[in-house]
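ingest -> validate -> predict -> emit
validate: passed (alphabet ok, no gaps, 507 aa)
predict: started
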Amino acid sequence: MRGKRVKAWTRRQLIQSGMTAAAAVALHGAKIARATSFSIMDRVVTHSEPYFHERGYYITFMRAPLFTFETWKGIFDGVKQDGGNMVILWMGGAFPSRKFPITWQYNFEHENIKHNFAGRLIDYGHSLGLKVLLCLTPFGYDGVNQYAIEHPELKAINKEGNYTAAFGLDAWGFNLNPYRPEAQQFMLDYTHEMLEFYPNADGLLLESSDYAISYCKDCSKSYYEMEFEFVRKISDDLWAKKPDATIAVYPHYFSSNEVPGIQAVGTKQSFDPRWTLFFTPHSTQIDAKLIEQARSSLYWDPSPTFGRPKLIQAAAQRARQAGFTGFVPSFEPWNFKFTGPDMGEAFLIGQRSSPFGFGWLKAGETPINELLMRMDKLAYREFSRNPDLPSEDFLGTLSRELFQGKATNELLDDLLFVDESFFIDRTWDSTSAIASSDYVKGRIELGLLGPAKLAEYQNRRVRIAQIARRYAGSGDAATAELARTAAWIIEHWNESPSSKVLANHLR
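emit:
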């Protein structure tokens, strides 16, 4: 039985460009005591039925071009191991469209563009008991935003009546103008083709646009009314063919409340209870009455991508408090090459992103088995089962499953410290700030880092170096991996041409 629903949160902090998602999550203020206060009890913790009905990950499949079919099978295995029953695969720009080849030309190195294995991957997910939804954004983002390169007349229009500038993450292009019938038709045709490629998918997530959206000064309808026209039509088309399909949509279409940080105001359309609602902390307000009407409701959060068990637990607790039926947060192991100033970080152009910032991995190598990711996946598994799991029980799980039940308080505290330090201030694109002096230099030049943060980095690096020495040569595999991870952070910083930047700025 799911717990009693409680009053929903009414406001969410916006994850703004240049602000880390982890920092935005931290604004909610949920905290867990530090590991040093935990009593490690390697007791067996029994679990009742998981709290959330829908569990799994939102995965930006399109931004991991180097992963093969076998790599993705391993990731799906990991979802199953984490107690998941759902995967959302962001497919825009990552399938070899025959009608609109411009949509994937930027992503030509993607393994699925080359070999088109996503259908087999969906079947593999089904064999594991996973429901697989495909995702794209109406009139924007990956794949879709490439269409205006060939059809510039369909570019979105800003509030001043001008065409919008290029925009994107990985896929740099132009959002479309939904007031143009040609743009509406393209969206329908492109989405239909994606569903024809992968008819075995269990449904869609239609991820509403939030940035660089189009305006029309003289039109009677708002942007979200125009976006809803597509959402309504494609939903009806899919349900006509597959009545049981899950179609997840944003709440913008059914609430006129203004979303903090988002310029467009929602609309008030008729809600179809067959829809599943999809909420994010950065672009949607939670509406408890609307949630009650929905077939199901999913809460997204960036915390698994940005590490730290305490953030994952805080997200699960927010999802429980709001009464969501599902907790399907971000799992985004990017490995694309930067072609634009993603998040304003032009200094990254020409470099290749590393999955979860694990810069020691070879190109295309999976991050699923790395120590920090194993810990954070355990955090998702445990806290999606029980958002209020006591800290000592979670640490007991870490001890048993990572360290054969032999972890000390000090070892677990060191592990959590390295994890926290590795992910602190990391953006969607970057590797660890603690490990990358090039990244720190770039952030300083953008006016985003100052003496206080640099001093914190320096202090953390001192302790990380101590951890690397403390566990070097350990006979336990996980402990030795912790030492190697800590050593890599120190060595990667020192190897960079910008390695003196921290000391120079603290003189």
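Strands lie at 54-59, 86-90, 131-136, 203-206, 246-249, 276-279, 296-299, 326-327.
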